[in-house]
Design goal:
334 residues, alpha/beta, Isopropylmalate Dehydrogenase, six-stranded mixed sheet, five-stranded mixed sheet, 46% helix
Length: 334
């Protein structure tokens, strides 16, 4: 019998809450049998949304929480003071092992703070990185740290590489994933002090398939499966990639509608273009995991739709079934 995976979902977090959040939960339980979702937030609003759908009632449970955390609040103050917020209540469910995982489209800062101080780091893990799954020409890669630790030390980046390799191999299914370090050139003499000190440490790790430095321009081509950097660099790469992708899609669509001839041509290429764009749609791959915690914490975009929420929820199944945290403890906590 399959183990029932329990996910605590912040129903009030995100630009489209609770509507898209609730729909994503319903879509997830209607697609997968071995999952139960706790929708945490203002119960009357959540029940109102649930009335719109048909689903197996035993797979969704509403947990009331009267407060919300907004993106313009101080993350530390919000987590500390708003004990009855949907985010804190849901995270406490993970801490208490009532739930296996937490998913939210809410305030990034509050999720990072709550993950560290409510759920807590695995004993022996120095820092918890945010890992962003990004599409490439060859498939997908994991960028970390993508936003959690702006000031990093070499030993942190080594931990990130180890946790990222475990995640990519056992959740995404990439055998012996290639690990690369973001740099301004591939030569070892290049880079800042952090990069110069980290590279030999990564090369000395026998359990890692470290391939050396990688320039940001090579990331979209799939030159590595795990791309390691500090959070400042990682977040710049992530946000620039998202912005550039949006611009390109808009320009392509605009060009296809610019004349009668282009509209006719657009009809011909539409099926192939749609298939290609789907591969590069980040929402297809779920959310960004915060690795190294006592339970799984997943951050999805604030503008997340039901599809992204559904994929993020389903993503929790593989993470839990593959016992990623146990593998992190075995390899990092010695």
């Amino acid at each position: 019998m399959e183990k029932l995976i329990k996910v605590a979902l912040d129903a009030m977090g995100g630009d489209h809450a609770p509507g898209e959040i609730v729909k994503g939960a319903v879509d997830a339980v209607n697609e997968v049998n071995n999952i139960k979702v706790f929708l945490v937030g203002k119960a009357p609003k959540i029940h109102e949304e649930l009335k719109k759908y048909q689903y197996r009632s035993e797979q969704i449970e509403v947990v009331n929480a009267e407060e919300e955390i907004s993106c313009d609040e101080s993350p530390v103050e919000a987590i500390r003071k708003k004990k009855d917020s949907s985010m804190v209540v849901a995270m406490k469910m993970v801490k208490d092992q009532t739930a296996d995982a937490f998913v939210s489209a809410g305030s990034s800062g509050a999720i990072l703070v709550g993950g560290q101080f409510v759920v807590g780091r695995i004993k022996g893990v120095k820092r918890a990185p945010l890992g962003a799954i990004m599409p490439t020409q060859k498939g997908v890669m994991l960028l970390l740290d993508a936003g959690a630790n702006m000031d990093a030390k070499p030993e942190y980046l080594v931990e990130f590489a180890k946790m990222g390799s475990i995640y990519m191999e056992h959740v995404i299914g990439i055998k012996n994933p290639r690990v690369a370090l973001v740099n301004i050139g591939v030569e070892e003499a290049k880079g800042n002090q952090l990069v110069k000190e980290t590279a030999p440490m990564l090369r000395a790790c026998e359990e890692l398939n470290f391939t050396g430095s990688i320039e940001p321009r090579d990331v979209p081509f799939g030159a590595a499966d795990v791309v390691v950097c500090d959070a400042f660099v990682g977040n710049v790469i992530l946000k620039l990639s998202e912005g550039l992708s949006s611009v390109l899609v808009k320009e392509i669509k605009g060009g296809m509608m610019s004349s009668v001839r282009s509209k006719l041509g657009g009809l011909l290429v539409k099926p192939a273009l749609k298939k290609t764009l789907k591969r590069f749609d980040a929402s297809e791959y779920g959310g960004a995991p915060l690795l190294g915690l006592n339970g799984l914490v997943v951050k999805v975009h604030g503008s997340a739709t039901a599809k992204e929420m559904k994929n993020a929820i389903i993503q929790c199944i593989t993470f839990t079934e593959q016992k990623i945290n146990d593998k992190i403890k075995e390899q990092i906590v010695k």
